[in-house]
Specification:
The protein is α+β, with helices and mostly antiparallel strands and 295 residues long. Helices cover 63% and strands 15% of the residues. α5 (128-201) packs antiparallel against α7 (223-242) and α5 (128-201) runs antiparallel to α9. The longest helix has 74 residues, at 128-201.
Length: 295
């Protein structure tokens, strides 16, 4: 099954006569599906429909959606002139000219550039619904391009994750092989210390020694940790095969894997075990970083 990355970009364009719509959709990592819109205000009523289109395809990610529409000016609005404001500017300019004793004529260009004289007046009855077929085509094309990029990046991430998963499985097998040797080393060290203590302080009860050795070996038992680690690694393999959405589940499993590796190290310590644990933690961290990008 397909694994998708949360990172990607797509652009879609559609035209119908004089109407042309362009849609850009960009997505990055996020815990949830978080949509942000940037579009002309008159097209705000279409936001719900666009949101439905996007959420039908995307499970997670911060998604920025930009929409621009070129349509006949009569569709979206017209340019208005504030005659009262223009006349007020003219009078004030005349007054300024007189007070400063300045010569020259006041031209239309001196007034038209003043703030508020010219303004765009939106058509409240703009045929937004009539533009929806073109807009939806542009959004659909942008989503398709976005998903293509997310799919391509997801495939690369899946390949990397499977590589690291294989390495982590091998490390788990090697750790399991080291258990008898590490446990025997613990037993030997403990017996040696008991021997030194008995030499310096007299006879020590053999039954007590046996009990202490059994207790120490019990505390060093990592059978459950190994079993859970294997089960978690099998789950990672399964989720990668099942495909998206898998990011949240995989992130949780990687936390559990890290916990089992840490517990293993706390219970059982030897030079070889420590070396393998450092490699396992490093590999697991690499996997978790990559999983953060998965949908």
């Amino acid at each position: 099954m397909t694994i998708y990355s949360m990172t990607g970009f797509g652009r879609g364009m559609a035209r119908d006569g004089e109407i042309m719509a362009t849609c850009d959709i960009r997505s990055v990592n996020h815990r949830y599906c978080d949509l942000h819109f940037r579009m002309p205000r008159i097209y705000a009523p279409l936001e719900v429909k666009i949101r439905d289109m996007v959420t039908e395809k995307l499970e997670r990610g911060r998604v920025d959606i930009s929409l621009s529409v070129i349509a006949p000016s009569s569709d979206s609005g017209k340019i208005g002139i504030d005659m009262e404001l223009a006349d007020s500017y003219r009078k004030q300019l005349k007054k300024l000219q007189k007070n400063l004793n300045l010569s020259g004529d006041i031209e239309i260009g001196d007034i038209i550039v003043r703030e508020g004289v010219l303004r765009f007046v939106e058509n409240p009855e703009a045929p937004v619904k009539a533009h929806w077929p073109v807009v939806s085509q542009a959004v659909g094309k942008a989503l398709k391009a976005l998903q293509g990029m997310r799919r391509k990046e997801g495939a690369a991430l899946k390949k990397e994750l499977n590589f690291h998963l294989g390495a982590l499985k091998a490390l788990a097998r090697n750790l399991e092989k080291e258990i008898p040797t590490a446990v025997e080393a613990i037993k030997t060290r403990f017996t040696s210390r008991i021997g030194e203590m008995s030499t310096s302080s007299g006879e020590i009860d053999p039954d007590r020694i046996a009990q202490e050795i059994a207790l120490m070996i019990s505390k060093s038992d990592v059978t459950e940790e190994v079993a859970r680690l294997k089960a978690h690694l099998a789950q990672v393999e399964t989720f990668l095969k099942e495909g998206s959405p898998a990011g949240k589940r995989l992130d949780f499993i990687m936390q559990e894997i890290h916990r089992e590796i840490t517990t293993f190290g706390n219970k059982l310590q030897s030079r070889d075990v420590s070396r393998l644990l450092v490699e396992a933690k490093s590999t697991a961290e690499k996997m978790r970083e990559q999983i953060q990008n998965l949908e």
